[in-house]
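Lab notebook, design round three. We kept the backbone fixed and only want residue identities now. Task for the bench partner: fill in a sequence for the structure below.
Input structure tokens:
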């Protein structure tokens, strides 16, 4: 079972943030995932963790359990800027390679949400800004988490052999896209499925199986299409201080669905 979790979700929230690099206890989470039977952690890079010297850490001994480096520091309106990417992305690519981490995840959400039907001109600008990284770092895969229609998402990764997609169940729900259509038209480009439940009105992340995300349809479609990639828990945190028990409950809820039962 290729089920993992976002970094920091097994510990108390840092400074009230939903997800942030746990500077003092980050190694502890790798012990916890082994006990819980999880396979991986998505490492989070934020502006805060960059300022605290996260790129000075040697995490190579954990590389087998780090599925990706997620660049939350790239959530910015400047994401189409070559200068911005050179400053904010290039050092992370170098750090990932040094630590034998194979995947860079880029969230195209909120301030970096540029790839919509209303702003398709930015698709070309962003792809041209990022394409040199796919050439300079052919040993890396670049995964994109998007709130865009499937055709826009597919256009971004087309013709770039190391560009792939993250399918976020909550994001697709909140955008009102058809899950089956999005999955059917995007496999085999999907390499990771973020598990999240959201309501549409009001738009918020909620406890799993209490929102508008049709997990039964999603998993039925993934099974029919023989999806074999990773799943990553990114669900509502629920009670602070009870993160491990909450995660145990979430694992139990999704285990049979992931295993096709």
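Proposed sequence:
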């Amino acid at each position: 079972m290729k089920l993992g979790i976002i970094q920091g979700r097994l510990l108390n929230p840092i400074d009230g943030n939903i997800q942030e690099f746990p500077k003092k206890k980050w190694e502890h989470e790798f012990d916890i995932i082994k006990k819980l039977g999880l396979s991986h952690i998505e490492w989070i890079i934020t502006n805060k963790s960059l300022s605290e010297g996260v790129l000075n850490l040697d995490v190579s001994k954990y590389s087998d359990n780090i599925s990706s480096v997620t660049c939350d520091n790239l959530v910015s309106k400047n994401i189409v800027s070559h200068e911005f990417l050179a400053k904010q992305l290039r050092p992370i690519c170098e750090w990932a390679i040094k630590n034998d981490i194979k995947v860079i995840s880029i969230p195209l959400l909120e301030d970096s949400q540029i790839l919509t039907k209303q702003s398709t001109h930015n698709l070309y600008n962003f792809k041209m800004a990022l394409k040199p990284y796919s050439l300079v770092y052919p040993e890396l895969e670049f995964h994109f988490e998007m709130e865009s229609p499937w055709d826009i998402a597919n256009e971004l990764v087309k013709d770039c052999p190391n560009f792939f997609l993250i399918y976020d169940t909550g994001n697709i729900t909140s955008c009102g896209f058809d899950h089956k259509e999005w999955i059917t038209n995007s496999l085999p480009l999907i390499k990771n499925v973020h598990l999240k439940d959201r309501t549409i009105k009001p738009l918020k992340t909620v406890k799993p199986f209490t929102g508008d995300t049709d997990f039964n349809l999603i998993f039925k479609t993934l099974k029919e299409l023989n999806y074999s990639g990773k799943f990553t828990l990114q669900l509502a945190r629920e009670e602070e201080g009870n993160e491990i028990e909450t995660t145990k409950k979430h694992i139990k809820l999704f285990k049979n669905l992931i295993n096709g039962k």
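Keep this in mind before ordering anything: The two ends are 13 Å apart (CA to CA).
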